[in-house]
TrEMBL record:
Its cofactor is Fe cation. The keyword Metal-binding applies. This is Pirin-like protein. It comes from Pandoraea morbifera. It holds the Pfam family Pirin_C.
Length: 302
């Protein structure tokens, strides 16, 4: 390009319109936690004050690895496969859920009172890449049965704004929405740059809390350079306002938003609980087999 898009655009914003909201975008620490290490990639963990209702958001990449049976309770496990991932992912849980995600699909697992689930790639020689979000439901569905649903790629709104392609994976963004009641207040929006481009990102003042993560390539947001190197990621917390967003061709960024619960939560061992006693009860139920058992698959995976 004769005049490439600058990756340090001038910062512009509108002040947050609700009392007490921070008007400054800020970089969030990212890490690779020990919890469920086989499944977790690089992302934002254990920062609920910043990401409520999201307990974690991570960009994962696995090559040939199955995630063996493990429990979840008091939360939603939302798994999105990037459209250019190399294979499918079969997701089962102990209460009858059995769905296969194709590239570009999303799984929404309401763990509710607790279940055991596993993930198996369709081809163990291929890589699986995507986004995983853990959404807080502590104390809200204690008696509900686990359930999972799938949003197929073809059901997601896709549109283009100049040289940037956008995909609404779940939730609502402007006039676009994904018709599924379970995740209507949790939004995942994907940006893909086909060429260097600069645009304004309008963060709505509707009570949702927003976090952006760079997935691949180079971008700049609110005056901060973002780069995804190797399997790493960088993240930012965005308050309402108008923010300058620039990206190089081939870059990918995801924007995640959710409505805060503003409630105490303890999240350990894949269990989201209201307090320590609730966590002890969930652990006891799992140890006693009340969250079910997954029977081994009869067939051998490739």
């Amino acid at each position: 390009m004769a005049h490439p898009t600058p990756l340090h655009p001038r910062q512009t914003r509108r002040p947050a319109a609700h009392a007490g909201a921070s008007a400054m975008a800020r970089v969030l620490p990212v890490s690779r936690p020990g919890r469920c290490a086989a499944a977790a990639g690089t992302g934002v963990f254990d920062q609920v004050d910043e990401t409520d209702p999201l307990l974690s958001i991570d960009i994962f990449r696995r090559h040939g690895a199955c995630i063996p049976p493990h429990p979840h309770a008091g939360c939603v496990v939302a798994t999105y496969l990037f459209p250019d991932t190399e294979t499918s992912l079969r997701c089962r849980h102990a209460h009858g859920g059995d769905d296969t995600l194709r590239p570009g699909d999303m799984l929404w697992l309401e763990a509710n009172c607790g279940t055991v689930h596993e993930e198996l790639p369709g081809d163990t020689r291929a890589a699986v890449r995507g986004v995983r979000m853990i959404v807080n439901r502590a104390g809200r569905h204690a008696q509900g049965a686990p359930a999972q649903s799938v949003v197929r790629r073809e059901a997601m709104p896709h549109w283009r704004e100049g040289d940037v392609e956008l995909t609404l994976v779940c939730g609502q963004w402007g006039e676009h929405s994904v018709a599924r009641a379970e995740g209507e207040r949790t939004t995942l929006l994907q940006f893909d740059w086909r060429a260097d481009a600069l645009r304004t990102l309008e963060i709505p003042c509707d009570g949702r809390r927003w976090v952006a993560l760079i997935v691949q390539g180079d971008a700049a947001l609110a005056g901060h350079a973002l780069r995804a190197e190797g399997a790493g990621a960088q993240a930012m917390r965005l308050p309402p306002g108008a923010w300058q967003l620039a990206g190089r061709g081939g870059a990918r960024l995801v924007l995640v938003g959710g409505e805060p619960l503003d409630e105490p939560v303890v999240y350990r061992g894949n269990f989201a609980a209201r307090d320590e006693s609730d966590l002890v009860e969930l652990t006891r139920r799992y140890q006693q087999g009340a969250m079910g058992v997954l029977a081994p698959l009869a067939e051998t995976l490739a």
